[in-house]
Model the fold of this input.
Amino acid sequence: MSKLSGHWTFSLVALFAATSMVVAGTEAFAAGKNKLDIVKNSEYDPNAEQVELFNAMEDGKVESKLVLKDSKGGRLLVTNNTQQPLSVSMPKAMVGVQVLKQLGGLGGQSGGQGGFGSGGQAQSTGGGINGGTGGNTGGLGGNSGGSLFSIPASKTLSLDFNSVCLEHGKAEPASRMEYTVAPVATFSEDPVLERLLVNVAEQRIDNHVAQAAAWHLASEMSWGDLAAKSVKHLGGLPATSYFSRAQLSKAQQAVSVLTFRVQQEAEENKNNSESEEVSETPEPAPADRVSLAR
Done:
């Protein structure tokens, strides 16, 4: 009986070891197959085809993966799926959305493209990359155009991504979560929020100040709610305020300034449109002018 038991024990151990080797080998193969050839610095190629990021993603020319370290940002990985270099035009601002796996097919593997949106378990984020059109020059900007980044064939470009959270009450982003990027309009059509996210991308505004402003605009939190938000501590220590008074004051000022600029631009665009309509009115013929003069 003991010999039989020992035989079965040995067989189970051998089977477990063999299975582990197969699984490990499969994972290693998959890792090697999916390994990205990453470049962090790539010179601009004037001869490369120019594409817009989201159009290129839709066409399958590039893939984008957002690896967020936390709410403040992480790395944006853009992979060139073609055999030719591409110069990708990056938007001034974008949102990071959690990819929701859709189960299906054999073995419960995810099928299709998956889904994403504000229905994820973690917060969507907003921001972008600093294309060198702002940096630490100070002030609230947001009028600069997007930047071009050249990516060699079959390579992956890694870029710093600056962000804030947009959905108060949900979990903060973490590196274990899968994210991608999408146009700001897929999350919100508020032009003030988009202008704020441009400033976040270009690091023109303190991150804590921007976070308060973002939750006010995107999550409709009142300034009173933001002032009451606190951080609890272990060991019986008293809770501390999440935002300081100075940060909330600057956040209110930022929202006011950006709101004014958006309204001002809308009014200027309206006036320009009316001026164009007047200028397009046909002038009277010479004979008509003489008649009117009489």
Observations:
- The chain has a mean pLDDT of 79.
- The CA atoms of residues 192 and 261 lie 9 Å apart.
